[in-house]
Structures are given as structure tokens and as C-alpha cells.
TrEMBL record:
It comes from the Bacteria. InterPro entries: DUF7064. Pfam families: DUF7064. Signal peptide: none annotated. Residues 205-331 form the DUF7064 domain. This is DUF7064 domain-containing protein. Residues 1-23 are annotated as: Disordered. Residues 9-22 have a biased composition (Basic and acidic residues).
């Protein structure tokens, strides 16, 4: 993760729970989990984002079914306070800090046989039916924690610009998953699932992300790759971060790049990620299976620009390892072109 100069990270198990909101309008506290059963061809991700100073939460649930359909829901329920991660039928519980978490959902999902229709969410919610869903998942950490709160070198709270920050603290972890998902009366079990989680807290505007590419892939209990590339509005090479999990130990990523094949709408079809650590290099390939495009409109501007987040269930391979995982690309879009593509073209 990126840190300002003269700062370090502080990791504290108390940060697994909710915090007292900072006195800024855009304070955000969010948790995200993904889970996959590679044998069953099933995947999902869920997120709760509390925005107590704006008086609402954000809840997103996205399930990738084996037949290519997607169950999706997004809600913005009213929120008074920041006491729990509990919004619109979704609840996250910390069972044991840094080790075990539980996810439950009871509510409807929009059942889409054309997931790309979410590029126009208003039309998609009118076009597709909503069906009842029930999710119960238990997550077990299989890696150390990555990240923490950004503090000064002396351990004091760092000063952040709330208009440009995306978090004060951020943590991530590779996970094992077990549980079940039921949609429209059909139950799917995750028996030996893999997954990933993250948590952020502090000031956040979505449009503060210029562009990033995030590949959080857990191949199993003893191997995983996280690669994150973040673009710089001022130009220059992307910020590279991440780690490789080998037998319970994280190897920090020293360098990395992602080569992407896009369709005509600039949606990724496949990719190759090249990762370097102190002990060697890794090449991880991905074949995108199912994609859901999401968007965040800017509160001001000429209407030509918005933030697009592509959430794609992807089949990953690295050496003899194979697993389902997430591909997440976030871009400022202008006239339909991702800024990550536009800047790469300009630099070529």
C-alpha cells in the first residue's frame, strides 16, 4: 500500500472493529470479502461501507453463479453511528481478530443473465427480477496481515488531506472459506473455498482514485499473490505494491506489471501479471470469465467523466496452481476510455 513520506504502518488488532469517525464529511469505514469454490465454478464478493457523517451506509453483494448468471444488489440504507458492520441485510462479525470472520446476508439479489447490463444500473434494475438469497460464510485467515494504520515515524496520527485521501488505515489478508449461498431456492456449498479480505477506514472520495489494478489471488493455504498498481495523476510510473504468500510468510513485491487484453469497450478479457520478489519472479495469467461493471459518478464536472470499477471473476494460473479469483480494475473514464489506457498510450 502507498504511504506518504516519513510515515510507517501500525498494526493493531483493535482496528478490526469499527472506529470513532473523524470529523470530516467523507469519513468511510469499509470491509470487503471475496470467496470462491474453484471446483464448483462459484464466486462472490461482498462489501459494507459505513459513511456515518453522511448518514448512510453502502452495501454491495455480487454472486457469480456457475452458469454465468450474476446475483447483484446495492443498497444505501440510513445509518446513525458507526457501531457495527450491519447494513441492508448484510452483516460482518469479527470472531477472532486477524484470524476469523463471519459473513451473513439475508435479502434479495437482482438475478442477471447478462451481467454487463450493470453498466447502466437504472435499466438493469428495471429489466431483471429480484430473487431471495441467503449467504452464510466463515472466513479463516491463512496469512499474516498486510497493511495497518498510517502513522508518523514517531507513531503519531498522520495528517491527511480529506479531499484527496482514500484511507487512513488499510489491511488485507488471504483467507480460507467455508459455507453456503442460496439464491432463488438453489443452494451452493463452498467446502474448501479460497478468498481474500480487506478493510479501510478514514477519509475517502471514490474519485480520488485516478486508476488502479488490484489482483488479490489466493491459490491455497500456502500460496497466494497480491499485486496492486496505482496510477499517478501527476504522471510517471505506477506505484507497485503487494506480496507473495509462501508457506505462511509474505515476500514483498519489489516490482510488477500487468499486460491486459481488452475488448472493444475496454473491458479486460485476459491478463498476464509479472511479479518480482527478493527470491524470484512469478508469472500469473488470468482468463476473465464473468464481468460486472460498476460506476461512481462525479458530484461535479461536465458529465463526460466518471469512475468505473470492473469486477471480474477470473481463472488464474501460476505454474501448477489454478484457482478462481478477482480482477478489479478502477479507472477514471473520459469519453469511454480508461485513464490507465490513455496515459499508457501517451507515454508510448
Amino acid at each position: 500500500m502507498y504511504m506518504p513520506p516519513n510515515t510507517r504502518l501500525k498494526l493493531d488488532p483493535r482496528d478490526e472493529y469499527t472506529h470513532e469517525p473523524e470529523p470530516v464529511s467523507n469519513y468511510n469505514e469499509s470491509m470487503y470479502f471475496n470467496a470462491f469454490d474453484s471446483d464448483a465454478g462459484l464466486g462472490l464478493w461482498v462489501r459494507i461501507g459505513n459513511r456515518p457523517n453522511e448518514g448512510h451506509a453502502e452495501m454491495t453483494c455480487c454472486v457469480y453463479l456457475p452458469d454465468g448468471r450474476v446475483g447483484f444488489m446495492y443498497r444505501r440504507p440510513a445509518l446513525a453511528g458507526n457501531a457495527a458492520m450491519d447494513a441492508a441485510g448484510m452483516r460482518f462479525d469479527v470472531v477472532e481478530p486477524f484470524r476469523r470472520h463471519r459473513v451473513r446476508y439475508e435479502g434479495d439479489l437482482l438475478l442477471m443473465d447478462e451481467p454487463m447490463a450493470m453498466a447502466d444500473p437504472g435499466r438493469a434494475f428495471k429489466r431483471f427480477p429480484q430473487r431471495p438469497a441467503h449467504i452464510e460464510l466463515d472466513f479463516e485467515g491463512v496469512s499474516p496481515m498486510h497493511g495497518g494504520e498510517i502513522v508518523t515515524l514517531q507513531g503519531e496520527r498522520a495528517t491527511l488531506d480529506p479531499e484527496h485521501a482514500v484511507y487512513r488505515g488499510h489491511t488485507e489478508q488471504n483467507m480460507a472459506v467455508a459455507g453456503h449461498v442460496t439464491i432463488d431456492g438453489v443452494r451452493h456449498d463452498l467446502r474448501d473455498g479460497t478468498g481474500y479480505r480487506d478493510k479501510s477506514w478514514g477519509p475517502r472520495h471514490w474519485h480520488s482514485f485516478y486508476w488502479y489494478k488490484w489482483l488479490p489471488v489466493t491459490f491455497g493455504r500456502d500460496f497466494g499473490i497480491l499485486l496492486s498498481l496505482k496510477g499517478r495523476p501527476e504522471g510517471g510510473p505506477a506505484r507497485v505494491s503487494g506480496n507473495v504468500l509462501r508457506s505462511g510468510i509474505y515476500e514483498p513485491v519489489l516490482d510488477g506489471r500487468i499486460d491486459t487484453d481488452y475488448d472493444p469497450d475496454w473491458v479486460p478479457r485476459s491478463l498476464a501479471a509479472h511479479v518480482t520478489t527478493a527470491s524470484g519472479t512469478y508469472t500469473m495469467t488470468g482468463r476473465v470469465l464473468t464481468t460486472v461493471p460498476l460506476r461512481h459518478k462525479r458530484s461535479s464536472g461536465d458529465g463526460r467523466s466518471y469512475t468505473r470499477i470492473v469486477e471480474a471473476m477470473t481463472e488464474y494460473r501460476c505454474g501448477e496452481h489454478r484457482v478462481l479469483g478477482m480482477t478489479e480494475y478502477c479507472d477514471l473514464m473520459t469519453d469511454g476510455v480508461p485513464v490507465s489506457v490513455a496515459t499508457a498510450r501517451a507515454a508510448a
